[in-house]
Amino acid sequence: ERHISIQRHLADLEKLAELKEGGFTMAVSQNTDLHVTDEKKPCPLCPEEKFRACYSHKLHRHLQNLHWKVSVEFEGYRMCICHLPCHPVKPNLVGDQASSKMGAHYHCIICSATITRRTDMIGHINRHVNKGETESRFITVPAPKPSLEVLKESATDVRVLPNYSTPQKTDSYFNPKMKLNRQLIFCALAVLAEERKPIECLDAFGATGIMGLQWAKHLRSSVKVTINDCNENSVTMIQENCLLNKMKVKLNTKEEDNDEAMGDGEENTDTIEVTKMDANVIMHLRSFDFIHLDPFGTSVNYLDSAFRNVRNLGIVSLTSTDISSLYAKAQHVALRHYGCNIVRTEYYKELAARVVIAAVTRAAARCNKGIEVLLAVALEHFVLVVVRVLRGPSPADDSAKKIRYLIHCQWCEERIFQKEGNMVEENPYQQLPCDCHGSMPGKTAVVLGPLWSGALFNTGFLRRMLFEAAQYGLDEAQPLLKTLVCEAECTTLKHFPTHSPCDENKQEECGVYIKTPNTSAESYLVPGKRKSEEVIRNAAKRQKSEGSAEHPAFYYNIHRHSIKGMNMPKLNKFLNYLSEAGYRVSRTHFDPMGVRTNAPLAQFKTVLMKYSTPTYTGAQAEGPLHLTEDIQAGEQVQAGADGKAEDAEFLEDDKSGVAAATFTKNYLAHCTAE
Prior knowledge:
Layout: E1 6-7, H1 10-31, H2 56-68, E2 72-74, E3 77-79, H3 96-102, E4 106-107, E5 114-115, H4 118-130, E6 149-153, E7 156-160, H5 179-195, E8 199-203, H6 210-219, E9 223-228, H7 232-244, E10 248-252, E11 259-261, E12 271-275, H8 279-285, E13 288-293, H9 303-309, E14 310-320, H10 323-326, H11 331-338, H12 348-366, E15 369-378, E16 383-391, H13 393-400, E17 403-409, E18 415-417, H14 436-439, E19 445-452, H15 459-471, H16 477-489, E20 512-514, E21 523-525, H17 533-548, E22 556-557, E23 566-567, H18 571-580, E24 585-587, E25 594-597, H19 601-610, E26 613-614, H20 629-633, H21 645-648, H22 655-673
Parallel strand pairs: 8-9, 8-13, 9-12, 10-12, 13-14
Antiparallel strand pairs: 1-3, 2-3, 4-5, 6-7, 10-11, 14-16, 15-16, 17-18, 17-19, 20-21, 22-25, 23-26, 24-25
Helix pairs in contact: 5-6, 5-15, 8-9, 9-12, 12-13, 15-16
Family: Belongs to the class I-like SAM-binding methyltransferase superfamily. Trm1 family.
GO biological process, one term: tRNA N2-guanine methylation
Subcellular location: Nucleus, Nucleolus
């Protein structure tokens, strides 16, 4: 039975007072000789020492003001404040204050808990509602279920609970901001589905099941989808969303229990398996071709299980949302989770991606597996890493050798990976291209890592992802994939074919992925046909040409290296200037103002200074000024020596221009001296 403090109307509390009146009159008559009239009634929610029996009009005011007005309403019921001795008083509080204030409490209508404060009681009820627990154990009529909102993404409908975007307040977490992340993972799975069919894929942390539903709905018979979650409410929500999208559901709460259900409407041969177990358990028990890990926070706790049974040439993708530690805001957490020492730098996002890949490499090496990084993306809310698994101790050793330490100069932010080998160098500063250690006092550099020192992208895989994104109409992923292709090739040329990459080899279908030793490129064969020696020879030549030029590590932010008092050139023009100087250059998705190039920092600053123009104030000048030959002799740059027309437009003959040139000469000479 429910507590007497939970009532629908105020009159119900007054009726309780009438029921209690007979017992009160009998007790007083036995102890005293006074005559107690039937009109005096005690309060049903207060002890006798707190509120004595009174007449009906006074009791009505007492119940209305002290109990009813401060009640908490839920589903037509009022949880009134109760002063009866059913809530324990803290032992350190004694006296009248403790018995009168600390004894007041509320009784929860759902779980019968006792809550002291009204605001805490309201929050307690809201937590029940967010979890879907709205059916009271005391109410015979079942309470109506909360209205579930239906969201649509990529032609897939999902029901979500209230506060679905706040993971602390709901079990089935759904983040609309991660739509781009889901599209990138879908493109990677679509590329793998073209290589071999069918493939078994696992969404280890299903939540609402949106990702697995998109896989099954678009790829259909090419994939066998398994959605897992350890929370019972999430598993129920996943089943409902499967039926909402007219998918068959195969429920596996244990290994021996199977249950199938089918949604209403037209028949669909696609079946989604829903499991309720820990992610580590299911990855230890079964083998998969594609595994995606997206836990709340870091994913390092699940890497060993993911690489234990993943099939050869399969793909493991993981999304890390612990950006506070990866982006060097909580460095001690990064050291605890990833075993890496990092600091905040201008390239902190790429540093975070290399930290995650290093942890993935170590986990794969413990299972005698190597990795090939296909994709590494670090944006505002997450870090996404997609790797291909290569079985065998030799690939594991090759991958482990690419984990190195990074030497980072804190003055000029120059950086370089340490050389391979176990020998200790007397002066590690000699590896840095800069001479800050010789000109600055004290220690100027720090050692970061261990980090992944290999490439972050696979150009062929990214082009195939771009083709799949265009084929399935994923508009948000296409601009990012185009940027990634240019970044992988380290070029500013944007040439994206509209046909499938497999058509370049005049093959009708994409075949099996073939990895040759000491290369990073791919070759594809038609299933059922053996490789010919000519195909192998052509693939090897193409791989050698692509692997000859090493992909530049890290990038420079053009604003961090700008010169005070000078206007920088436009970013696209600056990329052309670096390219004309003979360096590989491209933009990067890690930083909108970042430049990825193989040019040293000194040459980067030289080109930036060459094409920067002075900033003028007041009556000095009205426009930019061309640098004179005296500044060129001061080892700054030859502005005007090449005689190009684009330099001639900066010439000024007025006196203000001469004054500005003198100011620029003195300023640059001062910078050179420093």
